[in-house]
Description:
Helix content: under 10%
Strand content: 25-35%
Number of strands: 4
Order of helices and strands: EEEEH
Oligomer: single chain
Strand order of the largest sheet: 1-2-3-4
Shape: elongated
Distance between the termini: 69 Å
Mean pLDDT: 78
Amino acid sequence: MKVRYIAGIVCPKCGAQDSVRIYIPEEGDIDEQLRDCVTCGHEERIGQSAATRQEMSTRVSEKSTSAVQEVEPQILKLL
Length: 79
């Protein structure tokens, strides 16, 4: 497992900032992530379904076919 610190996260138990690390499973390991606090020892397990959430559908993420229209260039005269 790889161990990484999560920047800016606050421990839900003791409130310490920048003290939470995450254990990321490697290929062949159980698909479950573990987070723990180095200050108080609080542990939290995250299943694969929560770790790989799908992006919500919004008007920005939806693909539109008519978003760009072809316009013929025009010549302008400057006076």
